Amino acid sequence: MSRTARVVWDDALTSYNFGPSHPMAPVRVELTMALARDLGVLDKVELAGCVPATDDELALVHRPSYVEAVKRVSASGQPDPGAGLGTIDNPAFKGVHEASALIAGASLAAARAVWEGTAEHAVNVAGGLHHAMPAAASGFCVYNDPALAIAWLLRQGARRIAYVDVDVHHGDGVQAAFYDDPRVLTISLHESPRTLFPGTGFPEETGADGTAVNVALPAGCGDAGWLRAFHAIVPPLVREFAPEFMVTQHGCDSHALDPLANLMLSLDGQRAAYAALHRLAHEEAGGRWIAVGGGGYELVQVVPRAWTHLIAEAAGHPVDPATPTPQSWRQYVRDRTGETAPLTMTDGRNAEFRDLSGGYDPADPIDRAVMATRNAVFPLHGLDPMP
C-alpha cells in the first residue's frame, strides 16, 4: 500500500530522560531503532532528522508562560510544581525543555513531510506524549507532540483530521486540545478510567458534535475483545468523518507484560491494530498518515518489537511474525541492559476476533463498553448504534 514512508530520528531523542528509576526509560526507543536497523526495516524507509520545535510552534498548543516555566526548570533542574515538573511522574531535570522540544519537533517534521507530500507516511517512535496539557506536564509528558502535529496541520489549512489513540491510557491531552473543535475527531481506546490513570475518558465525554470518542475497556481485556471493540468503533466513525489526514498514537502499554496497566493484549494483537490503521489511512485519508509512539514500559520484551512492527507496517513491508530477532540485536540488548532478548517477532498468538455484526452480548463487559460508546456518539454522526 505504501509509496514512501519516512522515519524521523535523531540520537538526541534519547535525551528525554527522567532518571534511572523512571519507567519511561529512553533505552526503549534506542532498542527499537537498533532492532529495526538490524532487521533491515530501516532500509525500507527514508530516515530524516529533526530540529526542536520553536516557541511559536509550541504555542500552537501550550501557553507561552508554561513554555517559559519549562525553560527555567531546564536551566536550573529545580522543580516547578505549578508547571507539573518535579513530581514522581514528571521529575525535573536539566535540559528538559530541549529534550521535549526535540520530540515535538520530530512529530512536526513528520507532519510537515506528509503535508508537503514528500512522504506518504511518517513515523516518530519517540513521540506520542499525549497527556501534556496546555499549561502543565502530566503523565510522563511535557510537550504534547501529537496535538502539536495536529494543530500545525490545521494551521496549514487541513480541514478534517482523525486522531486514533491505542495507548492503554486515555489520550486526555489531545482530547482536551481539540474537545470543542469539530475539525478533529479524537478516538481513544483505553483501560477504564475507573481503574487507571488519568481517570478520564468516559463514553459521555463526546466533545463538539461527537468528535471526542472514548472506548473505556475493562481490565483484563485481551486481543479478541480489544480488536472487537476497535473494529466496532474506529472504522465506521473514521469513514463517516472522512478525514484528510490520520494521526495515530501507538502506546504499546496495552500488552499483557506491561507493568503499569491491566490490559492483556499480545504483540500480535497490537500488530493487527497497526495494519488496520494503515488500511484506514489509505481507504479514508488518501494514505496521509502520521504515526507516533507513546507509552510502553516493558522495555525489552515488548516496546522494540511492537514499534519495529509499526515502522515496517508504515513502510509497506510488514515483518513476518515468525521472523527471528537478529543475533546482533540480542547481543546488543544483553550488553545494554543485561536482559535476555526475545527470540522472535511474535508472541505466538493469532489475534482472532468476532466482529459485532452477529449482535452483542449485554452480559459481556467488553460489549457493554462498546455499546456505551456507540450509543453516546454514533447518533451524533448519523450512524445507527445498533449492530
TrEMBL record:
Pathway: Ketone degradation; acetoin degradation
Source domain of life: Bacteria
GO terms (BP aspect): acetoin catabolic process; epigenetic regulation of gene expression
Record-linked InterPro entries: AcuC (IPR003085), HDACs (IPR000286), His_deacetylse_dom (IPR023801), His_deacetylse_dom_sf (IPR037138), Ureohydrolase_dom_sf (IPR023696)
Keywords tagged on the record: Acetoin catabolism
Keyword Transport in annotation: no
Listed SUPFAM superfamilies: Arginase/deacetylase (SSF52768)
Domain Histone deacetylase: residue ranges: 22-312
Pfam families according to UniProt: Hist_deacetyl (PF00850)
GO MF entries: histone deacetylase activity
CDD domains assigned to the protein according to its UniProt record, in alphabetical order: HDAC_AcuC_like
PANTHER family listed in its UniProt record: HISTONE DEACETYLASE HDAC1, HISTONE DEACETYLASE HDAC1-RELATED
Family: Belongs to the histone deacetylase family.
Descriptive protein name: Acetoin utilization protein AcuC
Organism: Nonomuraea terrae
